[in-house]
Amino acid sequence: MMEILLVINPVSGDINKSDFLDFAKRAMSKSKIDYHLYKTTGDKDCEELDQLIDIYSPEKVIIAGGDGTLNMFLKPLIKHNVKVGFIPMGSANGMAVELDLTDSIEDLLIKFITSKKTKSLDVLSINDSHLLLHLGDIGANANLVANYDKDESRGMFTYARHFWSEFKNLKSFEFDIKTDQKEYERKGVMLAICNGKKFGTGIPLNSVGKMDDGLFEFVVVKAIDFSDLLKGALSKFDDEYEIENLETIQAKTATVKLKQPKLLQIDGEVVEEFTEFHIKVLSKALRFIQ
Ligand SMILES: Nc1ncnc2c1ncn2[C@@H]1O[C@H](COP(=O)(O)OP(=O)(O)OP(=O)(O)O)[C@@H](O)[C@H]1O
């Protein structure tokens, strides 16, 4: 059995990964680790990874890329029940905050190579076809991500430009949520689906989420004013802070119905428009290396 399959997204976050790759190759050769390297191409990567795991049966798959890169591989990672390490090298890296991956990328790699400990994380299944590890939403943020994706320029300035234009033009929309417990009729500018606590930019959107509790949370954002956003951004370091105008609804399963079709964004990637979707928890489905 092979020890490690290292997956690298060469384009994520506009970061050059050749130094990291050199470091990884040296570290693994020095430790006499049997490894295989896979660089993503942006085409059929998920199927490729599924086949590589079939062929090599690695004990661990370590993925270096952005949140979207990790999300893209959830299906085969869960199917093969392999141990997973994630090295955040994307532009926003919300997952890194959530998973507390604060060490340097080199230290993280060494930890993932050497550690035998794992923690199993829940994954959310949407309409039995899309998997969500961290956070999804419809409304303001999904539009923001879609417009940012279409823009040829990248980076924080471009993101900020889209951020302001999106949040200036917020329109609420109506939706019904039916959970395993209760039914809700709501209106808001954003409906977030959270497996964990943190929001992409560090805003503590949901304070009750745990990634291994068999539950997920909806956060209904009823209206955002700029002072709330500012407070949210400034409270990065203060987990106690919660933005007003938020309602949290916890569930094991749920169906969401929208009056009009809306874009759904999952782990930083825009999926498609939905008027109805169903969410369930795949309890402790992903074995994450600690
Ligand atoms: N070699 C490649 N060339 C172009 N695109 C790729 C390549 N490999 C992977 N991708 C694409 O990269 C995306 C995932 O990027 P990811 O979200 O991890 O990085 P990111 O830097 O956070 O992205 P963004 O800049 O959009 O926030 C997927 O859509 C995938 O198809």
Automatic annotation (TrEMBL):
SMART domains: DAGKc. Gene3D superfamilies: 2.60.200.40, Probable inorganic polyphosphate/atp-NAD kinase, domain 1. It comes from the Bacteria. PANTHER family: SPHINGOSINE KINASE, SPHINGOSINE KINASE RELATED PROTEIN. This is Lipid kinase, YegS/Rv2252/BmrU family. The keyword Cell membrane does not apply. Keywords: ATP-binding, Kinase, Nucleotide-binding, Transferase.
